[in-house]
Amino acid sequence: PEFPGSVSKARAAASGVKKGTATQTAVKVRNSVHFYRPKTLKLARKPTYARKAIAKRFDLDEFAVLRTLVNTEGSTRLIEEENTLVFLVDRRSNKNMIKAAAKKVYGLDVQSVNTMISPLGQKKAFVRLAAKDKAIEAASRIGLL
Questions:
Q1: What are 55-96's pLDDT values in tens digits?
Q2: By CB count within 10 A, which of 15, 31, 50, 111 is most buried?
């Protein structure tokens, strides 16, 4: 009994026996003398338990940002002439945090904020108020003057 396609299968098998089944593959051209280990499968992490029991709370709210008003001759001159209040602030706070805290805590309309870290390691913020706000009034309202 002859099966359909059996002759062609037999011919292919005979050809495979004569020639061999191992085919020649192209040699990979290497352009560098260095061998880099190939990238392998990287599975996503699936932790079996939390490494920290409680997530750390971000403790830098607006009341922690502004520490105190600076009361020196220089700061008094800035209040009178430059319409600027000088605060000691938390080292981790940035200008946007300082501006938002001054608005929320003291209701100040801030024009700009400059910061510096003093040689003592304290961060000072020079908060310039908008023209409509007077720094002298704000300082007296806060309790500085």
A1: 888 888 999 999 999 999 999 999 999 999 999 999 999 999
A2: 111
